[in-house]
Amino acid sequence: MNMPTNDQQIDMATVGDLDPVETQEWVDSLDYILREAGKDRAIFILKRLQEEMDKAGHPLPFTANTAYVNTIPVHQEPKYPGNIALEKRIRSLVRWNAMAMVVRANRVCPGIGGHISTFASLAMLLDVGFNHFFRASSTNSSGDQVYFQGHASPGIYARAFLEGRLSEQQLENFRRELQPGGGLSSYPHPWLMPNFWQFPTVSMGLGPLMGIYQARFNRYLEQRGLLDTSQSKVWVFVGDGETDEPESMGSLTLPTREKLDNLIFVINCNLQRLDGPVRGNGKVIQELEAAYRGAGWNVIKLVWGADWDPLLEKDQDGLLRQRMSEVVDGWYQKYSVESGPFIREHFFGANPELLSLVEHLTDENLPKLRRGGHDLEKIFAAYHAAVKFKGAPTVILAKTIKGYGLGEAGEGRNVTHQQKKLNEEELKNFRSRLGIELNDEEVGDAPYFKPSDDSDEIRYLHERRKALGGYLPNRGVKKAPPLKTPDQEVFKEFFEGSGEREVSTTMAFVQIFNRLLRHKEIGKLIVPIVPDEARTFGMESLFRQYGIYASQGQLYEPVDSKQLLYYREAKDGQILEEGINEAGSMASFIAAGTAYSTHGINTIPFYIFYSMFGFQRIGDLIWAAGDMRSKGFLLGGTSGRTTLNGEGLQHQDGHSHLLATTVPNLVAYDPAFAYEIAVIIQDGIRRMYEKQEDVFYYITLGNENYAMPPMKEHNHEGILKGIYKFQPGPTDAKMIKAHLFGSGSLITEALRAQTILAERYQVSADVWSVTSYKELRRDALEVDRWNRLHPLETPKVSYIESILKEEEGPFVAVSDYMKLVAEQITPWVPGGLIVLGTDGFGRSDSRSALRRFFEVDAECMTLATLDALRWQNKLDKKTVQQAITDLNIDPEKDNPLTL
Questions:
Q1: Closest by alpha carbon to 201, among 256, 238, 159?
Q2: Exposure of 25 by Cβ count < 10 A (0-12 exposed, 13-18 middle, 19+ buried)?
Q3: Cys-Cys with 694: which of 185, 446, 621, 629 at CB 3.0–4.6 Å?
Q4: Given this model, what pLDDT does residue 415 score?
Q5: Distance between CA atoms of residues 267 and 117, nearest Å
Q6: What is the pLDDT of residues 846-855, one digit of tens each?
């Protein structure tokens, strides 16, 4: 027998059997081993045979794919435990009301949007989960965490309506949340529906990523002894089109190396995206199987419904299996909308023997051959196998039809995703198909339909959810009690300053962080998160003391084991070291930052990262964190465009504070001194974990060393409000007055400019520390709005206006960020604000060279102040012109914004 060479690929479907008798002997031998010795022995034998092939120099061609049939054979399917007839009736009611909600919304407000078809394809997959698997949170358990496919939200609302958790008025106001009586958000949004949705999801790949890290965080809580999450499963429902998002597939290996058998993905393979097929020329189920199996997942393919079982049983020569494998998804989508004769000719007609397989079926029967995702009992079998599987995560690849059951109104068609309206005839057909008791006169209005509370359907609905612990989705059932904020003693040394010792704000934060980790109440609740940059931030001292979380512990001796600060992994390690993975780190932040709601425990995440690799890189996840009402601290290390010298364009952040303004519930600070950081973190813990406000924090940290001054008690309010006078200028009445705003490490340039102005130009400039332009703007906008709406009341005054109202002279601001960051408060600064900033791409050079390049050093700040005084007629032009020469400023230098 000729064997293929190493570089040849074998397609078993096309290789002829040269010796059928011998082949049958091998098959019989395998059957005997399975029958007499079991599966494990059979696997061992097959592996030994494969090893022998390798030794002989004929390794088997690799394939990560199995046949295009169901993974679970018929004889292994468990008996369905539910009332199939009642569940079908309930599902019909849910589907009708979901459709009615979208149709009615678009009649009232044309173009309001909404989706019918995604839920239509997913209805049965969700139905089995709701009735038999999804466990709710209770006082004794966190239950399961379910990430619903976002476009299926109408179906989730429709079920909650039957459960009595949503009113008809709310359904009527679907996608019209501002209407009287309240409405329903378009997709899962915890910010908009804080007692309903747990996790924000919709076609961006964030749900799969967050689900993976939620499952890992559940194990983290358990192995650290903080909470028993052993009974919780994480279910993630994903559209096959969504798997094109890098976030969907980017972290598939983490759950396998962590052995996260508490994680179950259900991919709704309806083969269709918004515009057309997901893989018209390929097979998305096979593609996904290869990716997940290759990553080590347990893959369950749910391709064909029970109608196909007799055909596959009769397929002794494998011709049907071969045909199933060779047909591409574009054809499968077409078969879902075509007639029986077309299916008979184009699918089965490829081979006379295939035609004979279905000769007993009528043309009406052929289109009714169900796909696996629309077969109740096969779905149950897949879910049952998934929850029982140990040692790895599971993905269920369920083949469905988009718009299933809509018929001519949109089943399986490219326009299906946009289907939002049905005409009267289509409504009648849908009504009849679902068996809804509405006559022809009633059906035209697409009314909601709900049986009485004592009906069999509603009773069954409640009984199933009671058996599973309660209703889902449901947020906040186990909301954690408040924490007590650490007292002043914890931060005392940081209020006292560093004396002559120079330190960076990054090192100051690490020292504060160490203090918090040792705190007897909250220390164990802190979750340090770093993306492979702990040593960059000087945090390696935490490795030995607190350990890096590793589900299997440390199975090796690290190369630095003999050093004091060696790399220590442990099962109960506290640090989440995520590798070069900002998205995964942010997903861990979200899991920890929402544990107060998901698990009823206050974990406090501190995620420290290169500030350039935060908002710019993972802005979608930060936005999702805001939507989820996450709590915790984001620390943007090595921040600023000129503070981080040497690294250059891709590393120097000059805009994260601008991007931070876009997240409504994010509190952002750019502190200059250690005591400011201490005050901000202490107040952050108070607001988030004691007062339980739904905010989270962004704090930027620099790596420039300078002496940290002591704190003056009266500065506390200004630090939190966003500005305070740090160092007044000379009190000589003969000197001209001015004001310099400094933020972060560039306050050192403001202080140097203060000296230059006083010594060379007789200008007394007060230096102000601006910790948060965003907070100042937020307060000013609130005051402006109040005054506008209360014209008869005594006007309020914003904080920035109140502290500057007695000040005279020009105001000049400098930060290591784009000018727009400081320009946010210009309308409320007397006479306006002259702003210096770092607009443009970064460069690699020394700090002094970079600051001159971006025109934010002390000399440029001095010139800006003198020029502002010229415009106020307090200095003449010649003085300013001479200053340009004296300060060695090149007036013909190119604009850094354009370079």
A1: 238
A2: exposed
A3: 629
A4: 54
A5: 15
A6: 999 999 999 9
Looking at this protein, which amino acid is placed at residue 159?
R
Q: Which 3 state secondary structure label does DSSP give 302? A: strand
Q: Among 336, 266, 289, which residue's Cα sits nearest to residue 117?
A: 336
- Taking CA atoms, 862 is separated from 253, 763, 825, in Å, by 55, 10, 21
Please report where in the chains the tokens 């059951």 appear, as a residue.
Answer: 405
The set of long-range contacts for 456-460, using a CB threshold of 8 Å and a minimum separation of 24, is: 456/86, 457/86, 457/89, 457/90, 457/93, 457/162, 458/162, 460/83, 460/86, 460/87, 460/90
State the pTM of this model. Answer: 0.93
Residue 391, classed as helix, strand or coil, is coil
**Separation between Cα atoms, residue 213 and residue 216, nearest integer Å:** 5
Rounded to 5 degrees, φ, ψ at 147 are: -95, 100
**Cα 386 to Cα 71: distance, rounded to the nearest angstrom:** 12
Cα distance between residue 269 and residue 333, in whole Å: 11
Q: Give me 573's structure tokens.
A: 């390690």
C-alpha–C-alpha distance, residues 182 and 167, integer Å = 10
Report the alpha-carbon angle 44-45-49, nearest 5. Answer: 120
Pairing, β 666-669 against β 811-814: unpaired
Distance CA 158, CA 91 (A): 10
**Could you give the CA distance from residue 327 to residue 756 in angstroms, rounded to a whole number?**
78
Residue 798, C-beta contacts closer than 8 angstroms, at least 6 positions apart: 776, 779, 780, 782, 783, 784, 828
Token pair of 19 as six digits: 């010796």
- Contacts of 892-896 with CB under 8 Å at 24 or more apart are 895/840, 896/838, 896/839, 896/840, 896/853, 896/854, 896/855
Determine the Cα angle at 695 with ends 689 and 698, to 5°: 105
* pLDDT tens digits, 650-702: 889 999 999 999 999 999 999 999 999 999 999 999 999 999 999 999 999 99
The residues near 17 (Cβ < 8 Å, ≥ 6 apart) are 23
CB 776 within 8 A of CB 668: no
Distance of alpha carbon 697 from alpha carbon 769, whole angstroms: 19
Residues β-bridged to residue 834: 812
Residues making up the chain, counted from first to last: 899
Q: Does 548 have pLDDT greater than 80? A: yes
Which phi and psi angles does 230 have, rounded to 5°? Answer: -65, -25
> 715, 729, 814: which is closest to 764 by C-alpha?
729
| Distance from the first to the final alpha carbon of the chain | 69
Q: 141, exposed or middle or buried, with CB in 10 Å at 0-12, 13-18, 19+?
A: middle
Look at residues 76, 780, 162, 718 and name the one whose alpha carbon lies nearest to residue 388: 76
